[in-house]
Amino acid sequence: MVVKGSSKLDAGHLPLKLESGRLLFIDQRLLPDVLEYFDATSFGDLCFAIKEMVVRGAPSIGVAAAFGYAMEANRRALDTNYSPEFSHDDVTRVISQSKLDSLVVDQKLLSDLARIKSELDATRPTAVNLRWATDRMHSFCAALIAKRVNARQFVEATLDEADRVFDEHLKTNLALSTHGVAVVPPHAEIITHCNAGPLAVCGWGTALGVIRLAKMHGLEPSVYADETRPRNQGSKLTVWELMQDEIPVKLVCDNMSGYLMSQKKIDLVIVGADRIAANGDTANKIGTYNLAIIAKHHGVPFYVAAPLSTFDRSISNGSEIPIEVRDQAEITTINGIPIAPSGAQALNPAFDITPSNLIAGIITEVGILRPPFEASIKEALAK
Amino acid sequence: MVVKGSSKLDAGHLPLKLESGRLLFIDQRLLPDVLEYFDATSFGDLCFAIKEMVVRGAPSIGVAAAFGYAMEANRRALDTNYSPEFSHDDVTRVISQSKLDSLVVDQKLLSDLARIKSELDATRPTAVNLRWATDRMHSFCAALIAKRVNARQFVEATLDEADRVFDEHLKTNLALSTHGVAVVPPHAEIITHCNAGPLAVCGWGTALGVIRLAKMHGLEPSVYADETRPRNQGSKLTVWELMQDEIPVKLVCDNMSGYLMSQKKIDLVIVGADRIAANGDTANKIGTYNLAIIAKHHGVPFYVAAPLSTFDRSISNGSEIPIEVRDQAEITTINGIPIAPSGAQALNPAFDITPSNLIAGIITEVGILRPPFEASIKEALAK
After folding, report:
1. pTM of this prediction?
2. Cβ contacts of A344 on chain B, cutoff 8 Å
3. Which helix (H) or strand (E) element contains residue B283?
């Protein structure tokens, strides 16, 4: 076997897995009705899957991109004429073992890899984890090429590296959750927005990771899940995941947070993040900024839970983070059925920026960062 | 003809009309796909229509209740065994003219009328216009009974009174809009929430009435319409109405207001109201409170447009306004199709309270009321 599966990727409801050399994503567009895998083995299908949110959630996208990069890099490295859809197990059938050992991966591959990276980077502009993962894979592959490894070594090493990306994400999120539990009082009532659970975050979760661990610690948290228009990740994914964990959850519309907080029902807010600037300004799913303002107005602490890979030190503040604007049809239709008049115009920004002055703390794997964020982030990233 | 139609009720896309003695409502649940009338002639169907939001919008509900009250009062007054579905034109066919003249409406009818009123009042608890309209019809009928009018006079007078309720609403909203135009700068970009246009407000509109008149005055306003989850009155009704008026409108999700305001796109917010307390605290469609907080945070003026009949002087502040909690299925399904996991719990408050300190002004038919609202409201109501 040239390509090995990861045991981490074979358990439970993980967002993605390698099976017989094929890259499979839970099709998050079909949940909660249908639990079905999408075959993202070909590079075209992989890019489609990220763009169309078959796989979603910044960390899961990062891991998906790492595996996708590795597989496509391997296809290019083997310089075959085989269909781009071939699974990695096909390699062992089609290419002789001796050829794998004798074929040296050469310098010319680098320009192919740059194209792979730029195509992946273009799929979703806002989340930084994607770029973080492709940067890492790209440097890793460049180093392999410089070492003049043979094809077998290259193929094995790239998939091992993608597996490490996944593995580190999982460990990171567990560490992050352990720190986060400190801000959850017993019987806490928590609002969360969008989905930052196992599907979004490599099988564990950031915002939901904290809540899941709080439940394991006997703190009996309960959750109000924002439905998160227009894609309804809250209704479809967060509620589904929390129900499976038997954590009490009530679905609410995104516009009900003021009502809930004015009724003194809410102890804290926890959300995930797609990119965090050096000053703590946080890009996350559209509606997060509204929720942060509402929380501030009511004196409810607002926490962001995100691994350090979410920080973009190249960006000083949120105004520099590009905001993806998606198809109007996401607002004017639901499941393909129109809910607005024919010809209606809509505006569909997919993310917004929450300025750091609305954030009580950022929960990371090295601890909870507190204001002033510029200093605490700098210190955390230096570790 | 005992019962006359109102010419006001026969024009364009009015939310309701009397036709051949039948009370017909535009079925607002079916818009924008289908423009169809719902026959609310029977009292049971009328109550259903208000409860299930066939007719909606506080002023339109008030007018619907006035007509419904009149028609049911007439059926009781005639003390017939006819089916409660009979149209008013049936009266002329079934009851002899001489009987109509000789039958005196007696005191015993009052307890029937009290039942009609309490059934109507129970249909929707939050909007005050409904109760305002039933109070008015009830006092009016009690006075007729005290005068010992005959059946013909009673039937004619009750429908005339309902017609006056309608007529006054229309005039009031035109007056209100004339005052409101003063707060709309040229080329204003305006956010509105829910639907306070012709369908909701007897053929003209409060919040949309101001915007429509601004367009007539050449101010070229444009609108961002909140979709207004969970019933999507924004997507389905506001966008539809504004498109017909050729006022530029973009549909947005309720959670995008912070994004829009942070991009400096918004000049003001105008919404309608379901009930306003003596201190200016305003009950309106769920999400209004969120929008008001977001506007305050960005220094964007937030206006309420509502006729004086929306004020409830019996209530000193918003905490006393009852909030209707509606069926969870409004959130977990769309057009009958599930969008959440089977068994998911939801919380569905239909309204929220915007405290008066978030409101820049309340646009009424007697002018724009400004803080301190307790004084300005008192003065306006004394007029």
Report:
1. 0.89
2. 235, 239-240, 243, 249, 251
3. strand B282-285
